[in-house]
Amino acid sequence: MKHWPYPLWIAHRGAGKLAPENTLAAFRVGASHGYRAFECDVKLSADGVPFLLHDDKLQRTTPERGVAGKRAWSELSRVDAGAWHSRGFAGEPIASFDAIATFVIRNGFHLNIEIKPTLGQEAETGRVVAGEAARLWQCLAVPPLLSSFEPASLAAAREAAPQLPRALLLASLDGDWFDLAAALECVAVVTVHTVMDAAVIARLHGAGVRALCYTVNDADEAARLLQLGIDGIITDAVDRFSPAAARDGVLA
Ligand code: G3P
Ligand code: MG
């Protein structure tokens, strides 16, 4: 197996549920709990600016409605992405990918960039996000890990920045997932935690591919995966799982 430069524990959407997901405030909260690696969801504005948002639409996490990717960044950058969570985060803006990258790089943290395209923008989002990531991290020893559920996004990312590592995200193990990951030259596969077992890890590790899971919030489940030799755990539970303590097998 090739050297794996990423921390085992990865804070989901910045800080899980403790702060408004995918905002800079969330990253700061995750960092304050000892996290050094973060996952976030990145898509494109109508004018091609990469920014952080999980859903296609704005309504769950902002006061606005409709498809976020149909709006220009000048408009999205003024949208409140914090008030829905709690009063203390009111006014927290939607984060640009550039701002998050600056925070991560300046602090020496690691980033798992989930390419989360608006429907129909799979290839374009992969191309632009990979290109921007390559530009922002160009002088650094450890690149960000690009991941996606969308094969077209990963293929476009490979075309734009073949040097950046890629991971295939899987919500199930249906179909020819292993061959797909191999065809996309992925260095890792990230599955929903419920389908990860010893056989899957053995198959991946046998091919030199790392095995990661999302979203693990239960201590017994984390212990099961650690015992199997999992390479990365994406969690919301940043206040319960301490990356420093968990290295020594102490959970929650
Ligand atoms: O990247 C892992 C995880 O974030 C995938 O699921 O829906 O939380 O983006 P989701
Ligand atoms: Mg995600």
Structure in words:
This protein is α/β, with parallel strands linked by helices and 252 residues long. The protein has one domain: Phosphatidylinositol (PI) phosphodiesterase (TIM Barrel), CATH 3.20.20.190. The protein has 9 helices and 9 strands. It has a 9-stranded mixed β-sheet with strand order 1-9-8-7-6-5-4-2-3. Helix 4 crosses helix 5. The protein binds SN-glycerol-3-phosphate and magnesium ion (MG).
Keywords:
alpha/beta, TIM Barrel, 9 helices, 17% strand, binds SN-glycerol-3-phosphate, binds magnesium ion
What is the second-level CATH architecture?
Alpha-Beta Barrel
The count of β-strands is 9
Which structural class do the helices and strands define?
A: alpha/beta
Our measurement of the CA-to-CA distance between the termini, rounded to an integer number of angstroms, reads 29 Å
CATH class wording: Alpha Beta
The CATH homologous superfamily is called Phosphatidylinositol (PI) phosphodiesterase
Q: Major β-sheet, in short?
A: 9 strands, mixed
- Whole-number average pLDDT? 97
Shape descriptor reads globular
Report Rg.
17 Å
Low-pLDDT residue intervals, each spanning 5 or more residues = none
Fraction of residues in β-strands: 15-25%
- Helices, by number, come to 9
CATH topology: TIM Barrel
Q: What strand line-up does the widest sheet have?
A: 1-9-8-7-6-5-4-2-3
Q: How many discrete domains? A: 1
H/E element sequence: EHEEHHEHEHEHEHEHEH
Bound molecules: SN-glycerol-3-phosphate, magnesium ion
- Summarize the amount of helix as a percent range: 25-40%
